[in-house]
Design brief:
This protein is an alpha/beta fold. 36% of the residues lie in helices and 24% in strands. A 7-stranded mixed sheet has the order 9-8-10-11-7-12-13, sandwiched between helices. It has a 6-stranded antiparallel sheet with strand order 3-2-1-6-5-4, with helices on one face. β12 and β13 form a beta hairpin. The longest helix has 15 residues. It starts with a helix and ends in a 26-residue tail after the last helix.
Amino acid sequence: MTEIFRAAIQRGASDIHLKAGDVVRARIHGQLVPLTQQRLNQDQLRALALKLIPRQSDRERIDDLTDYDCSWGMAGLGRFRVNILRQRGSLMIVMRVIPFEVPTFEELRLPSILEKISAHERGLILVTGVTGSGKSSTMAAMVHHINRTWSRHVVTLENPIEFLHRDQKSSITQRDVGTDTLNFNDGLRAALRQDPDVILIGEMRDTETIDIALKAAETGHLVISTVHTQDAVQTISRLIAVFNRSEQEMARIRLSETLQAIISQRLLPRADRSGRVVACEVMVVTGTIRDHIRDPDRVAEIVDLIADGRDHYGSQTFDQHLTELVRDDLVSFDVAKAAASNPSDFELKMKFFEDGGSTGSGGGMQDQFSAGDPTFTREG
């Protein structure tokens, strides 16, 4: 199995699937491909699961496990985020490949404005996207940038811990939910008593977590977290909608006062089929955007403010970035159009560009946001 894992990593796999009665499969550049001809049996899966589970108490109840998360690593091979599950009564294992080295903004080809966003001393920063869009990699790059640049105490709450951060200028405290703390909410409450400057929450899952995260941002901490939403406008609406109707007006006010930025991203296949490239929407929160967050009738207008703020604030919409990716031959037009927030508008803008016009809002295209082949993990 070690050699199979090594071969998968060398081919650029982001996930490895192991299921009783099936061959070993890996997701390579977004496609699920077979790695072996021999099928695995239940005994092999059980033996591997016992090796991957870190705690003896959990190994003893392996026959009762239905869904189980952990991390696992081997020197010279790599680190993995592991999910052990049952399907049709038998074991299955899905392993997410995690690079040993924490990625940088440059390696991920993320917009340079993220350096400025990471410099905030307080407030809420959200990284959003569907499953497998590279959110964990982007958050790790933000923590890495803070770690190299400022003397701060960063507390992370993860399930499980993915990237391992070494203390540099900052002190990094990484807590595994389920091992180091009982759950996200207990860990987040405790974090407020641990003298943090920055708190990273693996995911804002429910009303209680969102409420505590807002309180942490309101009391002078920088909070970084993820939400499974597709863009900035949807993120704002989703966060407010989780509160009871009687609490939503206050939630709007709190969010408008604490939110600093939303980075939404999608991974798209490269035109040359050599990997995938990230497309980003970046909303840098301005005074005008704060006013729009407070007014439910004007939230939908925020996408226009993002587009208009590209030159002055460094913000950008998905469609602005997709236009660049097509222009730079990194993504095909058909792939970009399918991923666009407004495919019809995108097609018109591309035609305008081909005819010699400018496609960007407020001053046109800018090379500083061109993207390349990222080394994102596919986080859950």
